[in-house]
């Protein structure tokens, strides 16, 4: 590996599933730029998040600690610190274009420059971290809002979508009717490429975080992209009556909550028709195809402006259910939520390979620091993936990965949910329930048969519960000093 300090471009999408990249087996997708990253880079096919919603996952990623250490359990919890500060202090010029989901939205977080773009459909929610005291977060004007305002445009949003005659039948799938360059993902891609094209050459390495708001709902591709995917055979939701009935009470009530409340302009219907589900998925996958085009713009801008020694990291903060298991969006621990596409691309530094071992999303944090020649805090709970990038034969990945989430305004019926996943088994524990979830991932990779009460699986369940206990104890001891300073 080169010993120079590379430029690092860290691309994060919002709510992107694994089955969205052609080169990784998604034959229904046209993603030439993401295919290039996968074919020329190091692809981690078994990378799992530490929390199944935006802010907890991102705060964990950008600190290297689990949510129970950061104290950031749900969207809106105050988040103002990150390892980006360490990069800046070490001599990197640090830039954010797009979504980070900090609280407050515009907290510096260690960036020399921030051009924040937040959720597409901010609707009368509480102001993150309670500061500033405005009536609701939809009144916060980010870079995208201000750009639209300057053009005399109003973004498409829930108030407008609700006026569509078929709003409830749409399941969150709507055509983008404003100019294409006003679409939030196109806006972020154009903004990042423009920065690379027009900023003077730096005499220091660059760290640029590019956060795309999509394919998070509303699922809103332009008509041309939507039409292309409406004509395709697409993978449809995986579920069964036994699957729905075997879910613990908090998840059954989560399904009911989504059917009652149209979060992010999505009217959820567990019994939606095949036609409705196909359109929902077509628009979602079309959103990813639009994102792919923006990734191509970034790669072209890097090449055109002499950013030759650059590491591109591509990933997402969590997946999307799209009707699998009767659910929508996130807030569950199924693999369609926890397993996210993760690629590190730098052809001059790393040979192309596929890494199948278990890793955790927040492992990308110390990986970036390692590549930048910055020593991570010794209390950090994430692990550098540089040995995997370099093909070290002694590197073995993780034995288990963990994720957790606290009660919020959507996951209402449990105080705390925790997952432990190995190569072979997954256990999901609810602190206030006797019921949980246990899946044999070899026999049941689609996670349709809950083995929690199966007499033949009780030894495995006990071992995994003991693993959770041991993990929380060791994590608390290791990170106690850091957590005190962080807060």
Short recap of the structure:
This protein has 487 residues and is α/β, with parallel strands linked by helices. The protein is 33% helix and 15% strand. The two termini are 37 Å apart.
Keywords:
487 residues; 14 strands; 15% strand; single chain; four-stranded antiparallel beta sheet; 33% helix; alpha/beta; eight-stranded mixed beta sheet; 16 helices
The secondary structure category is alpha/beta
Principal-axes geometry comes out as globular
Termini separation comes to: 37 Å
What fraction of residues sit in β-strands?
A: 5-15%
Q: How many DSSP-defined strands?
A: 14
Mean pLDDT: 94
Biggest beta sheet summary: 8 strands, mixed
As a percent range, the share of helical residues equals: 25-40%
Lateral strand order in the biggest sheet: 5-4-6-1-7-8-2-9
* Tally of individual helices: 16
Uncertain runs are: none
Q: N-to-C SSE series?
A: EHEEHHHEEHHHHEHHHHEHEEEHHEEEEH
| Radius of gyration computed on alpha carbons | 21 Å
Structure description:
- The chain has 487 residues and is α/β, with parallel strands linked by helices.
- Helices cover 33% and strands 15% of the residues.
- It has 16 helices and 14 strands.
- Strands 5-4-6-1-7-8-2-9 form an 8-stranded mixed β-sheet, sandwiched between helices. Strands 11-12-13-14 form a 4-stranded antiparallel β-sheet, with helices on one face.
- Strand 12 (416-421) and strand 13 form a beta hairpin.
- Helix 8 (184-198) runs parallel beside helix 12 and helix 9 crosses helix 12.
- The longest helix has 31 residues, at 274-304.
């Amino acid at each position: 590996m080169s010993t120079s300090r590379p430029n690092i471009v860290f691309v994060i999408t919002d709510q992107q599933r694994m089955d969205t990249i052609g080169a990784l087996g998604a034959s229904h997708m046209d993603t030439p730029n993401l295919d290039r990253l996968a074919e020329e880079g190091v692809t981690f096919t078994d990378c799992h998040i530490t929390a199944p919603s935006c802010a907890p996952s991102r705060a964990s990623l950008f600190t290297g600690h689990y949510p129970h250490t950061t104290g950031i359990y749900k969207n809106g919890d105050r988040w103002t610190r990150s390892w980006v500060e360490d990069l800046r202090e070490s001599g990197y010029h640090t830039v954010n274009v797009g979504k980070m989901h900090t609280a407050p939205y515009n907290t510096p977080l260690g960036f020399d420059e921030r051009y924040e773009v937040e959720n597409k459909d901010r609707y009368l929610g509480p102001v993150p971290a309670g500061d500033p005291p405005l009536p609701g977060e939809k009144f916060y004007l980010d870079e995208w809002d201000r750009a639209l305002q300057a053009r005399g445009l109003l973004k498409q949003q829930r108030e407008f979508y609700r006026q569509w005659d078929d709003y409830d039948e749409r399941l969150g799938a709507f055509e983008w009717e404003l100019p294409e360059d006003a679409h939030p993902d196109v806006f972020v891609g154009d903004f990042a490429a423009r920065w690379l094209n027009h900023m003077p050459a730096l005499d220091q390495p660059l760290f640029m975080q590019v956060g795309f708001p999509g394919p998070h709902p509303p699922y809103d591709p332009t008509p041309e992209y939507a039409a292309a995917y409406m004509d395709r055979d697409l993978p449809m939701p995986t579920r069964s009556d036994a699957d729905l009935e075997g879910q613990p009470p908090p998840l059954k009530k989560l399904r009911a909550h989504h059917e009652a409340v149209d979060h992010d302009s999505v009217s959820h219907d567990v019994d939606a028709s095949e036609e409705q589900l196909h359109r929902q998925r077509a628009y979602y996958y079309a959103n990813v195809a639009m994102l792919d085009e923006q990734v191509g713009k970034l790669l072209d801008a890097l090449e055109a402006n002499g950013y030759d020694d650059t590491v591109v990291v591509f990933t997402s903060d969590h997946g999307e259910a799209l009707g699998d298991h009767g659910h929508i969006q996130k807030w569950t621990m199924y693999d369609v939520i926890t397993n996210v596409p993760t690629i590190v691309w730098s052809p001059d530094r790393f040979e192309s390979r596929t890494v199948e071992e278990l890793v955790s999303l927040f492992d990308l944090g110390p990986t970036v620091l390692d590549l930048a020649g910055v020593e991570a805090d010794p209390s950090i709970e994430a692990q550098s993936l540089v040995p995997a990038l370099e093909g070290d034969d002694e590197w073995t990945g993780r034995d288990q990965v963990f994720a957790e989430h606290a009660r919020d305004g959507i996951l209402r019926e449990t105080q705390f949910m925790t997952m432990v996943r190995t190569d072979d088994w997954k256990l999901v524990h609810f602190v206030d329930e006797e019921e949980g979830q246990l899946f044999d991932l070899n026999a049941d990779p689609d996670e349709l048969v809950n083995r929690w009460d199966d007499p033949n699986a009780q030894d495995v369940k006990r071992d995994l519960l003991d693993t959770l206990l041991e993990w929380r104890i060791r994590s608390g001891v290791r990170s106690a000093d850091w957590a005190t300073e962080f807060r």
